[in-house]
Amino acid sequence: MELILIFVSAALVNNFVLAYFLGICPFIGVSNKLSSAFPMGLATTFVMVLTAIVTWLIYHLVLVPYNVEYLQYVSFILVVASLVQFVEMVIKKVSQPLYRALGIFLPLITTNCAILGLALFIVLKEYSFVEGIFYGVGAGAGFTLAISLMAGIREELELADVPAAFRGAPITLIVAGLLALAFMGFAGMITV
Amino acid sequence: MSKKQVSLFNDYTKGVWDQNPVFKQVLGMCPALAVTVSAMNGIAMALATTFVLVFSSFIISLIRKLIPSQVRIASYIVVIATFVTIVDLVMRAQFPELSKELGPYIPLIVVNCLILGRQEAFSSKNNPFRSVLDALGMGTGFLIALASLGAIRELFGSRSILGVQLLPDAFEPWLIMILPAGAFLTLGLMMGGLNAMILRRKRREEADILSKHIPKTYVAASEGQEV
Amino acid sequence: MKTIIAMLVTLTIIGVVSGGGLAMISGWAAPLIAANKKAATERAIFLVQPEAKQYEAVAEVPYELYRVLDEGGQPTGYSFPWEGNGFQGNIRMMIGLTPDLATITAIEVLEQVETPGLGTMILEDPFRGQFNGLKTEPQVDWVKGAPPTKENEVQTITGATISSKAIVDIVNDGLARLRTDLAQGGDK
Predict the structure, then answer these.
(1) Which of B12, B67, B104, C172 is deepest in the core (most CB within 10 A)?
(2) Which residues are bridge partners to C84 per DSSP?
(3) CA of A61 to nearest chain C CA: how many angstroms apart?
């Protein structure tokens, strides 16, 4: 039960994009088409779960026992960067269609602050290994949801008569603000 | 000023406005939106980011010729993460209150695309002096953006700027300004407003040119500018 | 082969320099950070026990508990941090109690992520002040929309009922734990 709450909390109540402002770059950059936003969300979720697993192990099996917590940021970001590289290689070997669908997004994921943010939050919230994984899945689902919703809206916006000055980033930010307001409705739904 | 001075001056000033990281390049959005509930937080965040940016740019520019290109990104992020850890440790030791306020957004400077972007686009190709100028310029631009966003949100969200109350008690604070939604809306409106100003000035300039040359040539006014 | 060696050597050198530098800076910062944390806890302990002059940690319980003393070293109550769920996330607070645990001296919220302007009213006096001198027997209760009538009641904040109830719940939860542990004779 606790685990489901962690999942729902990360996905809806404390949505990474709309409440914590993590992963804004791809959220604004890759959200103009649903057909690219959704795969981007999936790729990010995949890397998030792997990151949750590996950084948890590194933090609790290496950094804490050897008392070198100050290497946390350096090691975490290296983990994220190598994981992304590794995932890219594996996907390329295993499935060409999947690689063609996700390939171009993978390098972008390294500098997606949602990934590093996830690793840091797991440490901060003192989650156990399994809780960390559920948190990662939830955060990924939340990111996918936010970016897909955004892409759906932006596809419609293409047809709308937006003032010239507001085209592009400004109108995207304003729509994101309205989405954030909508997501506030989830606040207090559950408490974790 | 000599030509060389002009170009050095330009290394600094381009980041302040023409290529402003937040308003023009739409980079570094995470911290720009997350910590700007007050002007002070925005300023502190921008200063921390500038510190990391300047020192990373200097070091990376210094060793740019020694790094094999295959591992350059990995090298950059290690250098950046090192300076971020330094900032984090110093802030927790000397400014515990501020550090608590900015929370996990200090470590997230590591993945601020602005910093990695400048290494890739500038420091890896230019000498340390110019790289530091570039970094200082981008930092100043980031500071202007975060401070103004923070000031607007603080003014309407809690009646004050930098903790000094400016609006009377009769003014009911707009809660939305300090909520996440307010961050998105304020920045969106600010960017739109700035674009509108730029478009208007451009139209006026074009109108001036047209009025001088009409009816010799007919020039179609070009539509808005790419941001 | 040559490039691979160059790659490895570069990364190793950068890693070693970075690690070494950070170790040095961390060695300087760690004691200061620990001192800051201690100062923050100390401030909170005395904030909820305005009369107290000194404090000592109680070692018999497996969580943080401080006995506060007056100038002569006589115990005048307890301060202890406790946490629980709020409306949007964790709330951590410091609770001050008299020695018999029957009355709250004051409370102070240390960490919270409630809705700004509504939930955050738990930090402010109209609500927080109700806890000064509040009775805890048999437990703290809340009433909604009307001033409290009993000595162990507080009125919830309009628009922030869940946050208000959360504070009451955390206080009761901490109290229950403390009563059991101290009754078992772990402490005089």
Answers:
(1) B67
(2) C91
(3) 18
Tell me which chain B residue has its CA closest to the CA of residue A178.
B181
- For an interface test with A, the pick among C10, C12, C24, C88 (most A C-beta atoms closer than 10 Å) comes out as C88
Interface contact B94, partner C, CB < 8 A: yes
Helix, strand or coil, per DSSP, at residue B225: coil
In a domain, A148, yes or no: yes
Place of tokens 């047209």: B210
- Each residue of B156-206: pLDDT tens digit? 888 888 888 888 888 888 878 888 888 899 999 999 999 898 888 888 888
Query: What ipTM was reported for this prediction?
Result: 0.83
Q: Chain A: residue nearest B89 by CA? A: A70
Count Cβ–Cβ pairs < 8 Å, chain B vs chain C: 62
**Residues in chain B closer than 8 A to C15 (CB atoms):** 78
Instruction: Specify the higher pLDDT residue, A16 or C185.
Output: A16
- Residue B139 confidence class, pLDDT cut points 50, 70, 90: very high
In the block, which residue shows the tokens 């996905």?
A11
Give the model's pLDDT for residue B218.
47
Question: Is residue A188 situated within a structural domain?
Answer: no
| Nearest CA among A45, A37, A149, A116 for reference residue B113 | A116
Residue C43 burial (CB count, 10 A): 12
C156 CA to centre of own chain: 21
CB atoms within 10 A of CB C56: 11
Q: Which residues of B32-59 are buried (b: 16+ CB within 10 A; e: fewer)?
A: bbbbbbbbbbbbbbbebbbbbbbbbbbb
b/e map C123-134, b = 16+ CB within 10 Å = eeeebbebbeeb
For residue A167, being part of any structural domain is answered with yes
In a domain, A10, yes or no: no
Asked if B138 is an interface residue toward chain C (Cβ–Cβ < 8 A), one would say: no
The number of domains in chain A is 1
Q: C-alpha B81: how far from its chain's center?
A: 19
A-side interface with C, Cβ within 8 Å? 13-14, 68, 70-71, 74, 187-188, 191-192
B30 vs B50: CA distance, rounded Å: 15
Q: Which residue from B75, B90, B96 is facing C36, i.e. has the nearest CB? A: B96
- Looking at residue B169, its pLDDT comes to 83
B106 interfacial to chain A (CB closer than 8 Å): no
